[in-house]
């Protein structure tokens, strides 16, 4: 699971956590440890994120990968994921 908070389009905080699955409870546990109540959770449409947002009472926006602005919405998540993959390859 990876998350990035941004301010004025630039990354401020990032978290990455290896999880055993993407069940609602696993996602909820991870998000509950990291999110404040005033956030807007912007996700890719996985229904578990919507359920977690509702349970945590936080705003939730869905951007599908097919949406026109998906590349910008997930820019930093994709950047950090790409960097992690490069680091992993370089250290093996």
Structural commentary:
The model has no long low-confidence stretch (mean pLDDT 91). The strands form two sheets. Strands 1-2 form a two-stranded antiparallel ribbon. The two termini are 22 Å apart. Helices cover 45% and strands 23% of the residues. It has helices at 24-34, 47-56, 70-73, 75-90, and strands at residues 2-7, 10-16, 40-43, 59-62.
Write a concise synopsis of the structure shown.
The chain has helices at 24-34, 47-56, 70-73, 75-90; strands spanning 2-7, 10-16, 40-43, 59-62. With 92 residues, the protein is of the alpha+beta class.
Continuous helix count: 4
Instruction: Determine the N-to-C terminus distance.
Output: 22 Å
What is the arithmetic mean of pLDDT?
91
- The helicity comes to 40-55%
Structural class: alpha+beta
List keywords for this structure.
92 residues, alpha+beta
Describe the secondary structure blueprint for this structure.
Layout: E1 2-7, E2 10-16, H1 24-34, E3 40-43, H2 47-56, E4 59-62, H3 70-73, H4 75-90
Parallel strand pairs: 3-4
Antiparallel strand pairs: 1-2
Helix pairs in contact: 1-2
């Amino acid at each position: 699971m990876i998350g990035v908070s941004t301010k004025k389009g630039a990354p401020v905080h990032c978290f990455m956590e290896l999880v055993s699955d993407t069940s609602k409870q696993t996602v909820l546990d991870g998000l509950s440890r990291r999110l404040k109540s005033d956030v807007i959770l912007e996700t890719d449409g996985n229904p578990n994120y919507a359920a977690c947002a509702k349970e945590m009472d936080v705003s939730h926006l869905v951007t599908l990968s097919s949406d026109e602005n998906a590349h910008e919405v997930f820019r930093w998540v994709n950047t950090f994921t790409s960097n992690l993959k490069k680091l992993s390859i370089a250290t093996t």
